[in-house]
UniProtKB/TrEMBL annotation:
InterPro entries: EF-hand-dom_pair, EF_Hand_1_Ca_BS, EF_hand_dom, Peflin/Sorcin_CaBP. Keywords: Calcium, Cytoplasm, Metal-binding, Repeat. This is EF-hand domain-containing protein. It comes from Timema genevievae. The lineage of its organism: Eukaryota, Metazoa, Ecdysozoa, Arthropoda, Hexapoda. One of its GO terms (cellular component) is cytoplasm.
């Protein structure tokens, strides 16, 4: 990437579910393509993304690891993205489970990240590189989630271990992706679309472990 940073771009992601954090039988899960648009024809690579891939692939192996991705991404506070965020993002598109992504997978990841960046930037009004509880709540509402103030406070405290008041863009991405993963797991088990499920202990552990990094 030209400046070692993934700049804000793309459109805010379409909503997932609305009402009480999850409302059965409503919208489809978030598209991984900016603005809900379809990707380039299969096998077609954007030349700019090809250039960024080459830059990020520091060992010239033809694939990108979480460490290489972390070295290339800097948040608005001048810090590299967290190891957790980078491993989570790599894992989302690592189809062969090698811990790395190839060029095609990188293009999907790049487009996906930029959706979250677009949403984050729209609430980072002062360009400080972080958002606070009120802004996080608004961003989640834009994505279709209606969480209680107590739950949003919990999300902030879980992410901001020092001050418990604000989150950076990489922390925001981790929160949003994990919420989406849990929502998908809930939706697949909500067969009758009631917004309530019964889950046994082992199934619960599978859901939790699949959403962890």
């Amino acid at each position: 990437m030209p400046d070692g940073d993934l700049s804000y771009a793309g459109q805010p992601p379409p909503g997932s579910y609305s009402g009480g954090g999850y409302q059965p039988g409503t919208q489809q899960p978030m598209s991984i393509y900016p603005g809900g648009q379809q990707p380039l024809a299969q096998g077609t690579i954007d030349p700019k993304i090809q250039q960024w891939f080459t830059t990020v692939d520091s060992d010239h192996s033809g694939v990108i690891s979480a460490k290489e991705l972390q070295a290339a991404l800097v948040n608005g506070q001048g810090k590299h993205f967290s190891d957790t965020a980078c491993r989570l993002m790599i894992g989302m598109f690592d189809e062969d489970q090698t811990g790395t992504i190839n060029l095609l997978e990188f293009q999907l990841l790049f487009n996906y990240i930029n959706q979250w960046l677009g949403t984050f930037k729209s609430y980072d009004q002062d360009g400080s590189g972080h958002i606070e509880e009120k802004e996080l709540s608004q961003a989640l509402q834009q994505m279709g989630y209606r969480f209680s103030p107590d739950f949003v406070t919990f999300l902030i405290k879980k992410s901001d271990h020092e001050n418990h008041v604000k989150i950076s863009v990489d922390q925001f991405i981790v929160i949003c992706v994990q919420i989406q993963q849990f929502t998908e797991a809930f939706r697949t088990r909500d067969k009758e679309l009631k917004g309530v499920i019964t889950i046994d202990f082992e199934d619960f552990l599978k859901v939790a472990l699949n959403a962890s990094v």
